[in-house]
Structures
1.
Amino acid sequence: MDQAVSLRERKAGPIAWSKKSLRIADPQGPLVRVLSVSSGKGGVGKSSIVVNLAVAFAQLGKKVLIMDADLGLANIDVLLGLTPKENIAHVLEGKRQLREVIINGPGGVRIMPASSGVQQLTRLTDEQKLLMLEMLDELESEIDIFLVDTGAGISDTVLYFNLAAQEKIVVITPEPTSLTDAYALIKVLYTRYGERHFRVLANFVEDEKAGKGIFAKISTVADHFLDGISLDYIGSIPRDPNVPRAILQQRPLLHAFPRSAAARAFLSLAERIRKSPPHQNNGNVQFFWKRLLQV
């Protein structure tokens, strides 16, 4: 790749990116669904949701890559009993290729491990950005679903990854603080950055009626104060004693207790997302990285 040409194209704006480094306009190119999973507060089961949703997608025949973007508190590997020796920080330091740090997880799911060093993503040089795009370009044909497990709250890093993803899933629970903090996350993304489309997933609920009930609460407030916002309810995961049991075993719920109520809910959720069109039709992995890495 001609670095000078690529850098000029990047600075000219999203439409001017070269087709080689960013094929967002190619209608024949594969569509990689890029979904961020976030929450307003910790303790809502977000990372467990990412793991089990990834396994559910894999069982539907999808090729899935998880990016652990909970910087400094990366725990996808812990949930699965994995011990990666290297992570994306080693790629940015030039010590490894991206393909070399991606590890295999259960059910064919692959994982891009993180560490506190991944905060380098916010201050990459132009050369590092081009390198990352080239390496991800090589992986595009190997991915159908790219799941980004962000941190909790409204820190710059959480906002950073949400802005880069094309589809945003916000996890809520019946706890009042979960609802208020989730609304705060949505409000910041709406008021500061103009993000209008969010999907809401209810976790730890007694049944589907309860899930729709807590969604109605956050939806009512958002509709009243945030003009033109779109919150879509995508389902719920029931409170299930098998979920913490699977976590203690460091196994996905769908493998440890495949017939449990929550496991069936994850499969239904993956199928629902698979059938629903993304809000943006240019949601591929290069577009994610272009937005993530641009100055």
Note: The domain at 35-293 is CATH 3.40.50.300 (Rossmann fold).
2.
Amino acid sequence: MLEIKKLYHYYGSAKALEEINLTLEEGALDGIIGPNGAGKSTLLRVITNLEEPDRGKIEFLGERIDDMKTHKIVKKGISHCPERRRLFPDMTVDDNLKMGAYLVKNRGKIKELKNFVFETFPRLKERRKQRAGTLSGGEQQMLAIARSIMSNPKLLLMDEPSLGLAPKVKEAIFEAIKKIKQEGTTTLLVEQDAVLAMAVSEMIHVLEEGKIEMRGTKEELEKEPRIKQVYLGI
């Protein structure tokens, strides 16, 4: 579904991404882990052309998108749930969800998507008339994910969904991520919490200093001494 080949991105003379190669199959849930500043969020931003790649190729469903405008990439079916949520704080939960569904023309589908997000995040249903800016941090993260789902994406990019959340809220968010995967949505997950990312991802890509240094399944990476020491604290 998504294929990235020899992708480079620079900030001035500094390499933010270096020769990234990544293939994501339809229906998969892949994780990207790595330290702060490794280029994880930058990679998602480059996929959606919020930041232009300097070299390389990105294909989505067999079509090149690396030179495509962001709004056209969204129309192709890629939804980006950004780091730090980026909600409309003065709008209600309901209105934020409506904004997420602005490209979906079928009212029946919108109703189906809303039912799914309220089933996945019951707390949002309870607070549907509440302004987004008054929600707790965990509820805001739930809303950010729900808004992304409302666009009915073929591919969902998730950037640090557990950032700054309490352990119990993190667990709830990751249960929701598993449920989204079960519904068939292809997902690429960037996550600082390696333990959580590895628990839900089928394939994990380890990004360090702009390069993918290692990749494998949870079982494979758990055997790597450096992964155990640096990411899992074993």
Note: The chain is about 40% helix and 25% strand.
